Amino acid sequence: MRLRIVHILIPVLALSLVAIPAAAQSDKVFRVGILSNVPLSSPQGAPVWGAFVEGLRDLGYVEGKNVTIVDRSSEGKYERLPELAAELVRLKVDVIVVPATQNVRAAQQASRTIPIVMAGASDPVGDGLVASLARPGGNVTGLSMVGERMAGKQLELLKATIPGVARVAVLGNPTNSRFVGWVREMRDAARALGVDLVVVEARGPDDFERAFALMKKERVAGVVVSGDGMYLLHPARIAALAAKHRLPAIYGLREFVDVGGLMTYSPSMRENFRRAATYVDKIFKGARPGDLPVEQAATFDLIINLKAAKALGLTLPPPVLARATEVIQ
Q: 72: Cβ–Cβ under 8 A, 6 or more apart, which residues?
């Protein structure tokens, strides 16, 4: 267990790459298209996309020299993804890098030939994005977040944290293409753990107040908040509402804990995005995406905010604390 006092964002404002390693010696200037859900220079986007840019730099790709980065963000409005993906195709990018399932779908609809690299799709086989993890086929490859296993672990950790918990809410965005599958995975995990599940929807920031009021009305003891791209634009507001209603919450992304949320259990997204750069490098060197096995996340983080726990009057059980990879004081 490591103690953490200050979190420093990786600067990515200009997406400039300094240092020129010996790799990637080529006269060609590659065009990397990024189809994101949060702006790359935002506090939420900078850490993960900064890790991707650093991964490219380490492999010898220098912005303005042998690579150009073209980014388009839906800003949490998933209905914009198809037009943004089509725009990247018109700009003739050499590869499209995407963070999540709905982004993959939009990129696939825009092009079946331009390579697409996933940085964190939850269930690429189950969602029909690839034929198999070992042989994806088509033009999609990258990294998977193994969502089903994560759903079970999140509920398990929340149950272990709240004494006598019997009823838990899950907060998700129904406009997210993964919503139905995520709810199904959560229901399966809840049945296995003997927990009653209440599904609460929030499509946009105007729904947050109503959603948390509904949770209190339903007398839930805690909440699992999905790692939705739109939610990622409002982590402080969501964490504050959980605190206001005195609801212990576990989140799908660490950004919520950085701004006062109780805990998160998820793959290391920064590591995933850094690893995505290796796929881009292989594709630039001639590999076909359909021949590159999809890599499952290997590093998972349990991050706990003790200040948030204290404000909720919670004493974290020693077994839960012992599993933490990081503790914020």
A: 33, 34, 35, 36, 84, 85, 87, 88
C-alpha to C-alpha distance for 251 and 171, rounded to whole angstroms: 10
Please count the other Cβ atoms lying within 10 Å of the Cβ belonging to residue 246: 11
How far apart are the C-alpha atoms of 176 and 179, rounded to whole Å?
A: 5
Angle at 202 between CA 197 and CA 204, to 5 degrees: 165
Partners of 68 in the β-ladder: 31
Give the mean pLDDT per block of 10 residues along the chain (329 residues): 39 40 65 95 91 96 94 94 98 96 96 96 88 95 78 91 93 92 91 95 96 96 93 95 97 92 91 95 97 89 95 94 93
Q: Read off the pTM.
A: 0.81
Q: What are the E-state strand segments in the chain?
A: 3-4, 30-36, 67-73, 95-98, 116-121, 140-144, 167-172, 196-201, 222-225, 249-251, 263-267, 295-296, 300-305, 326-328
Burial 132-165 (b: 16+ CB within 10 A, else e): eeeebebbbbbbbbbbbebbbbbbbbbbebbeeb
Which domains does the chain possess?
Answer: 3-145+269-299 (3.40.50.2300), 147-266+302-328 (3.40.50.2300)
With tokens 């730099």, the residue in question is: 57
